[in-house]
Design a protein that fits this description.
eight-stranded mixed β-sheet; 25 strands; globular; five-stranded antiparallel β-sheet; alpha+beta
Length: 555
């Protein structure tokens, strides 16, 4: 059995074997979009690893051959002292499990390769920053520790501004800080694992693949699968790709983009971007992102390429889409793609507008909307901020209203929920290790992060109202307190959050529901025309009657 596939337009296998992420990369190749060269290790290899406790026979040789292919394509040497090749190692299950499994970036930056990268670029701080990011992500993966647990030194490469925007770039102080941070992480791994981080690129890759496969069975991943009725025996694929360095310089960065606004369905690109950073900085929520539109102002040529990519992908899906991208020295690379998966009013608007644009027919638009979508259209909102005691404001990340008692740790959220309380989890940012607390909470608030942060992505997947990026919010989990605007509240305080407006309010204010808009009225008129029944009924009944007619006709 073959365990590895090079990712190209010619690959035909399904997500059950390649994983959803790799299938998306195959699509990008077919659309002629820029994708970093790479290969995928199949879910079959993961299942064999979980069954036998070791990588399957023959995988080592296939990895060596696949890496040699990447070296030839890139004209670089994996872990080599001259023109070194570095890779990313990411999970990619057949079903979406956002942020639940491990990712390792910049793998292959051994001590010798890092020195070679510094010589090649003439930028030693960039090379050291990139190695620090490798060590940090590798340490989190192999020890199954939170990024914060890797140590304060480990956060040094991720906190504050990115390398490409660092005013201290190139100074001896920065190089010393990076070197000290790397030593701290290496010592952390040595203490936790009883052995050092390998300084051989091939050994690093094998260890990383084992860590990603193992992360399929972590408690956080099992909790997520249980919540979403995902079978535990599917396993994950592993995608290995040539690195694109978003931290290279001021014309580099990373971001995420929807072809349409996921909150409203409006036909304008929506997302966020970080200049001088790598992708994990966006999804972790540790860094403050910028609105996607700033990319148009700073990199107009790249913005035009991004719009072209979104249009091509949306044309293929005939639906809104989502991508993750990185750009290095002004060159765009697309790293991930999937359909937008909008809900509520956004889903209704996209379906009706695509039908009016004649991209899809009215019957297909009706079938894309479920009664559940209709229930979500009537999104609850806090009635009026003038009537409420607003404690803080952030970015609405998932629509709806949640009322609950503050819990400043995931463990505390679980305990309070087990005692029968409704809970709002309030954190500086969330990570996969908070999954049990996220599952117990009715709503989520984070001080940092944007619409693509871990907290926001998981909240949308779980349909939990969420507010992220609350500027000035300080969470002291040790003392169980939250401070904003000079006021401090403690664990157990009753709050209400509005995942549309981003308001965090003390107590239980008056709640109202959104009224139906023109898109819903139009869709339901199509439903009545389809069913032939124009009598006065509930919205779900009108939609279900149309669905029954369409299914009976084989639509």
């Amino acid at each position: 059995m073959s365990w590895v596939r090079m990712i190209s337009a010619q690959v035909e296998e399904a997500a059950e074997t390649l994983g959803g992420k790799a299938v998306g990369l195959v699509l990008l190749h077919r659309l002629g979009l820029p994708v970093p060269p790479g290969f995928v290790i199949t879910t079959q290899a993961c299942r064999a690893f979980l069954r036998d406790g070791r990588l399957p026979d023959g995988l080592d040789d296939e990895l060596a051959a696949a890496v040699a292919d990447l070296e030839l394509t890139a004209g670089r040497a994996f872990g080599g002292p001259r023109r070194p090749l570095a890779v990313s190692v990411r999970s990619g299950a057949g079903v979406s499990m956002p942020g639940m499994m491990s990712t390792i970036l910049n793998l292959g930056l051994t001590i010798e390769a890092t020195a070679g990268l510094a010589v090649e670029t003439g930028d030693r701080p960039f090379a050291l920053n990139s190695r620090l990011r490798f060590l940090s992500s590798f340490a989190s993966a192999v020890t199954n520790a939170e990024a914060s647990a890797v140590g304060d030194a480990g956060d040094a490469g991720h906190s504050g501004v990115g390398h490409g925007e660092d005013p201290g770039r190139g100074t001896r102080d920065e190089e010393t800080r990076l070197a000290d941070a790397m030593k701290a992480i290496e010592e952390f791994v040595r203490q936790r694992c009883g052995q050092p981080i390998p300084d051989d690129a091939t050994h690093q890759l094998v260890s990383a693949v084992e860590a990603v496969f193992s992360s399929w069975d972590t408690p956080r991943a099992r909790t997520y699968r249980a919540l979403h009725d995902i079978p535990h025996d599917l396993g994950t694929a592993v995608i290995v790709q040539t690195m694109v360095f978003g931290n290279r310089d001021g014309h580099s960065g990373t971001g995420v983009a929807f072809s349409r606004d996921p909150n409203t369905g409006e036909n304008i690109p929506f997302g966020e971007v970080l200049f001088g950073h790598q992708g994990e900085d966006v999804v972790s929520g540790r860094s403050t992102t910028r609105p996607l539109r700033e990319l148009a102002e700073r990199e107009p040529a790249l913005w035009a390429e991004l719009l072209d990519a979104l249009n091509r992908i949306e044309g293929h899906y005939r639906d809104a889409c989502y991508i993750e991208f990185t750009f290095q020295a002004g060159e765009l690379w697309v790293l991930q793609v999937r359909p937008g998966r909008f809900v509520g009013g956004a889903a209704v608007r996209v379906a009706t507008e695509l039908a009016e644009e004649r991209v899809i027919g009215r019957h297909e638009a009706l079938l894309r909307i479920s009664p559940r979508h209709l229930r979500q259209v009537r999104t609850p909102r806090i009635a009026s901020s003038e009537e409420a005691d607003v404690f803080a404001r952030g970015l609405g990340a998932c629509p709806g209203v949640a009322v609950g008692h503050v819990a400043t740790t995931a463990a505390r959220a679980v305990r309070m929920a087990q005692g029968g309380a409704l809970v709002v989890l309030v954190r500086p940012e969330t990570s996969p290790h908070d999954m049990h607390g996220l599952a117990a909470a009715t709503g989520i608030v984070t001080a940092r992060g944007g619409p693509a942060s871990h907290a926001a992505v998981v909240a949308r997947a779980m349909e939990r109202p969420a507010v992220v990026g609350v500027a000035g919010l300080t969470v002291d989990a040790g003392n169980g307190t939250v401070t904003a605007g000079g006021r401090t509240i403690g664990d157990g305080t009753l709050i209400t959050i509005d995942g549309t407006s981003g308001e965090v309010v003390l107590g239980r204010p008056r709640i109202v529901a959104n009224a139906a808009d023109e898109h819903l009225h139009r869709l339901l008129a199509w439903a009545d025309d389809t069913s032939g029944d124009h009598s006065r009924r509930g919205e779900s009944q009108r939609l279900e009657a149309a669905h029954a007619v369409l299914r009976a006709s084989g639509a």
